[in-house]
């Protein structure tokens, strides 16, 4: 079962949709990936218990891709969520990462290069795909429209990296059509589709594998096949 198609316009100063083969020195795809687009819709309206996922239909490019090179200081270590929760409850003392501890191979500071996008602007169409029969599909659609039209969200949407916030507005299907980069056409080759097995139930909505598809942009528009389509390459389960 599926809901109605919704359309939002998104934009931001920077974005990075990292190609998986260039994970250390990040290099962005020239356009937003379906998984990153789904994440923006999730930020506006999604909950584990609702029993649906967002199916991206298409991405329209409203500004030509432009790259910018960024060199950033990053900490090698990663935060332990369980330890943070214990600290919040006052059970343990916090242990910070010392960025300038250059002798520590795990926690020291390192510089990494990022080839990111700048001044990104897209229009994304998507609908809710329900895993089970849900009599309240219309209610879900109305709640999403209400939130999106008022600029509300559960958390700040972002473009690939959380330090690159995404701004959005609900739009009609005919709006901003003249802004689409119709002269832009490209064969992007194999692109990440998603890092979740969207066929699983909500209890198993955790990273399972990487799925990919052959991405092409024609007249400033990238069509996105459904997750069940044979065009999406994924392991058989």
Question: How would you characterize this protein structure?
Answer:
The chain has 237 residues and is mainly beta. Helix content is 14%, strand content 36%. The protein has three helices and ten strands. A hairpin with a 2-residue loop joins strand 8 and strand 9 (221-223). The longest helix has 13 residues, at 137-149. The two termini are 21 Å apart.
Based on secondary structure, the structural category is mainly beta
Q: Count structural domains.
A: 2
Give the overall form. globular
Number of helices: 3
Radius of gyration, CA atoms, in whole angstroms: 19 Å
Unreliable residue stretches: none
Strand content: 35-45%
Instruction: Name the helix and strand elements from N-terminus to C-terminus, one letter apiece.
Output: EEHEEHEHEEEEE
Amino-to-carboxy terminus distance: 21 Å
Largest sheet report: 10 strands, mixed
**What is the level 1 CATH name of the largest domain?**
Alpha Beta
Please name the CATH topology of the largest domain: Alpha-Beta Plaits
The share of residues in helices is 10-25%
- The residue-averaged pLDDT reads 87
Number of strands: 10
